[in-house]
């Protein structure tokens, strides 16, 4: 893998909680050569309007490896979870690779991810070099992570 490679990752939310997405919303994320899987997870959560960030998450890479934050309630002890704070995205994925990101291992907000452009130009796509992964394109309606539609539902 190239040392200074920027990549564009297509991320589509396919469902979670009790929500099934018939028209999955998505984002194209620009990811730099030093950005870790934790950086990508945090940026996906922001891009998909997550506000309760106390939940565990994990990526499943094309070879089946898991990378993320272990969750004692949902973790399979036979599967080692890679350290998402040290593993860089660009060092573990190639053009066309597909992988998944799951936020909240209880409600399982599942995202299908694909490396769309393994040689993205950050200055052309974004401008100044971002310090973390950033969305550069997006589409669709993003549901509230708890299914709430109004402020009044907070008190329920």
The computed structural class is: mainly beta
Number of helices: 2
Question: Total strand count, please?
Answer: 9
Question: Which H/E pattern describes the elements?
Answer: EEEHEEEEEHE
CATH architecture: Roll
Q: How many discrete structural domains?
A: 1
Approximate shape: globular
Strand-residue fraction? Answer: 25-35%
Low-confidence stretches: none
Largest sheet composition: 9 strands, mixed
Calculate the terminal CA-CA distance, rounded to whole Å. 50 Å
CATH class: Alpha Beta
Rg on CA atoms, Å? 16 Å
The share of residues in helices is under 10%
Oligomeric state of the chains present here: single chain
CATH topology descriptor:
Structural Genomics Hypothetical 15.5 Kd Protein In mrcA-pckA Intergenic Region, Chain A
CATH superfamily: MM3350-like
What's the rounded overall pLDDT mean?
Answer: 87
Question: What does this entry look like structurally?
Answer:
There is one protein chain. The chain is mainly beta. It has two helices and nine strands, in the order E-E-E-H-E-E-E-E-E-H-E. It is globular and about 45 Å long. It starts with 6 loop residues before the first strand and ends in a 17-residue tail after the last strand.
Please supply descriptive tags for the structure shown above.
single chain, 156 residues, mainly beta, Structural Genomics Hypothetical 15.5 Kd Protein In mrcA-pckA Intergenic Region, Chain A, 9-stranded mixed beta sheet, 9 strands
């Amino acid at each position: 893998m190239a040392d200074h490679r920027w990549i564009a990752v297509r991320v589509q939310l396919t469902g979670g909680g009790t929500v099934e997405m018939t028209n999955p919303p998505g984002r194209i994320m620009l990811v730099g050569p030093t950005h870790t899987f934790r950086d990508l997870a945090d940026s996906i959560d922001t891009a998909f309007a997550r506000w309760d960030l106390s939940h565990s998450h994990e990526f499943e890479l094309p070879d089946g490896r898991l990378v993320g934050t272990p969750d004692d309630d949902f973790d399979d002890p036979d599967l080692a979870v890679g350290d998402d704070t040290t593993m860089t995205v660009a060092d573990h994925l190639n053009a066309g690779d597909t992988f998944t990101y799951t936020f909240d291992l209880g409600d399982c907000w599942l995202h299908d991810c694909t490396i769309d452009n393994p040689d993205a130009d950050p200055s052309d796509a974004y401008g100044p070099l971002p310090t973390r992964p950033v969305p550069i394109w997006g589409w669709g309606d993003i549901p509230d992570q708890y299914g709430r539609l109004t402020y009044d539902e907070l008190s329920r």
